[in-house]
Design brief:
The protein is an alpha+beta fold and about 290 residues long. The chain folds into two domains: about 5-95, Phosphorylase Kinase, domain 1 (2-Layer Sandwich), CATH 3.30.200.20; about 100-285, Aminoglycoside 3'-phosphotransferase, Chain: A, domain 2, CATH 3.90.1200.10. The protein has helices at about 5-15, 55-65, 110-125, 150-160, 165-180, 225-230, 230-240, 245-265, 270-285, and strands spanning about 25, 35-40, 45-50, 80, 90-95, 100, 185-190, 200, 205-210, 215. A five-stranded antiparallel sheet has the order 1-2-3-5-4, sandwiched between helices. Strand 8 (about 200) and strand 9 form a beta hairpin. The longest helix is centred in the C-terminal third of the chain and has 22 residues, at about 245-265. The model has no long low-confidence stretch (mean pLDDT about 95).
């Protein structure tokens, strides 16, 4: 979809005339699943960029207001739900603006303290009553479900990458993750705990955003950041603050491996920056001695 400032202005004016006079500007770091725009200084507009992301809109409107009071940090607050119009075919949302820069733009200097704060947030999220919450499925790309969903794709990526990676080590990590089956009750998970979804103010974690992949199930998918952002002391602090069993950490390592493999396989010839980051994460995952 070609989602422009002009389109957003028309949608807002047509459905929420009380905000029609507010300026609209594209957010520089607006994400992939949605296109994001400033609406005045205190709100933002998010519009799914493809049909596959549409189910996330209703899910966030239903569940985020219920989760927010039970969490130690701010999360997005839905303010209004828009509908198809002006040639745009899907529902869209207005949210309150959360101050801060993403940890991707502004990496915190004290990663250990940052890791502890994130672990505390995830522990609180996992402790919320999961009864009736959205299970893993197509709507969240099976986050919180078994890694077997991505088994064939992972093995194909390992084969495609050939001598570019430590293939045997990757297979061992993957097989260990697959064998560590989740037997616990479903718990809440975020589903996309990445640096771009963690806001920083004053070098501290200030908010967690983008719950489009959230649901209830296996929390291992939220642990991949132990390898994508943290290392050494910060990784140890993150792990110590989340009292999860060894099998869950093995699956978290599997999630990190899967994403790095498919990213490298897709971008190694077309995007040097994404490929380099995938190689860095692979080095962390395959060199990790935690397990």
């Amino acid at each position: 979809m070609d989602i422009t400032v002009s389109l957003v202005r028309q949608l807002v004016a047509g459905q929420f005339p009380q905000w029609a006079s507010l300026p609209v500007a594209r957010v520089a770091w607006g994400g992939w699943d949605n296109r994001t725009f400033h609406l005045g200084s205190e709100m933002l507009v998010r519009l799914p960029s493809a049909e596959g992301y549409v189910p996330q809109v209703a899910k966030e409107h239903r569940w985020l207001p219920l989760l927010a009071p039970l969490l130690p940090l701010p999360i997005p607050a839905p303010l209004a739900l828009g509908g198809p119009a002006e040639g745009y075919p899907w529902p869209w949302s207005v949210y309150g603006w959360l101050e801060g820069e993403s940890a991707l733009q502004n990496p915190p200097h004290d990663l250990t303290a940052f890791a502890k704060a994130l672990a505390d947030f995830l522990a609180a999220l996992q402790g919320i009553d999961a009864n009736g919450g959205p299970p893993p499925g197509v709507q969240n790309f099976f986050r919180g479900g078994p890694l077997t969903t991505y088994d064939s794709g992972t093995r194909q990526a390992i084969a495609d990458l050939g001598g570019e990676i430590e293939a045997q080590a990757a297979l061992e990590v993957w097989d260990t993750a697959l064998s560590a089956t989740w037997h616990g009750p479903p718990v809440w998970f975020h589903g996309d705990v990445a640096a771009g979804n963690l806001l920083v103010q004053g070098d501290c974690l200030s908010a967690v955003i983008d719950f489009g992949c959230a649901g209830v199930g296996d929390p291992a998918c939220d642990l991949s950041i132990a390898w994508t952002l943290f290392s050494g002391q910060s990784c140890e602090a993150f792990r110590a603050a989340l009292p999860l069993d060894e099998g869950t950490w093995a699956r978290g390592r599997g999630w990190a491996l899967w994403k790095a493999l498919i990213t490298l396989a897709e971008y190694r010839l077309s995007d040097e920056i994404k490929a380099a980051e995938a190689r860095r994460v692979l080095a962390e995952v395959l060199g990790e001695k935690l397990l």
